[in-house]
């Protein structure tokens, strides 16, 4: 059985050109599956539905490759899935893609080699770029500290905690913080500390979080 697949990017586009081409190739209208989806969008309901109905010996036909595949790697993934099902794949406007012929299979093998080369080049460039950045002393990864909105939340949370003595749950609701670890992180940045000797809570932005001591135990330590 021959199945056809049609895709347009927006509702304003007309799929009739693709449908007529598939009908001309002998695809029954009931076996033509259609999606309205941009080329970059991964979710395609009718494509998934069509694949679920494929059986060994069937053929999938499209008007052009870009109607079914988002990229070379996506095309290869689809063709591999069809191959495992025992299903052939053809493109009307790209006759060199025909998995029923030796030539078509060879072209797909070349596509696979190109895709792998592209991945290798990207990895090589990324690795070289990271090494170069480290040599120049560039700090990699996310910048430390808080963004503008997070800073405002941290200041507000500390204010509620110190001045209003509100419960943690109420502070989270008022400030819009979803988790307690995040709230305590914000409070720590604002200077909330637990004495490592007695556990008492005090405020100091001068002492490190993991080595904080209240005034009493700082004096004892210095004696």
Write the layout of secondary structure elements.
Elements: E1 2-8, H1 16-24, E2 32-36, H2 45-53, E3 59-62, H3 72-85, E4 88-91, H4 102-135, H5 148-164, H6 168-175, H7 180-189, E5 192-194, E6 201-203, H8 215-222
What's the helix count? 8
Report the radius of gyration as a whole number of Å.
Answer: 31 Å
Sheet with most strands: strand arrangement: 2-1-3-4
SSE topology string: EHEHEHEHHHHEEH
Top-tier CATH class of the largest domain: Alpha Beta
CATH architecture of the largest domain: 3-Layer(aba) Sandwich
Low-confidence stretches: none
CATH topology label of the largest domain: Rossmann fold
Q: Terminal Cα separation, in Å?
A: 90 Å
Report on the structure:
This protein has helices at residues 16-24, 45-53, 72-85, 102-135, 148-164, 168-175, 180-189, 215-222; strands spanning 2-8, 32-36, 59-62, 88-91, 192-194, 201-203. It has 223 residues and is of the alpha/beta class. The chain has two domains: 2-114, Rossmann fold (3-Layer(aba) Sandwich), CATH 3.40.50; 148-222, no CATH class. Strands 2-1-3-4 form a four-stranded parallel beta sheet, with helices on both faces. Helix 5 packs across helix 7. It is elongated. The model has no long low-confidence stretch (mean pLDDT 84).
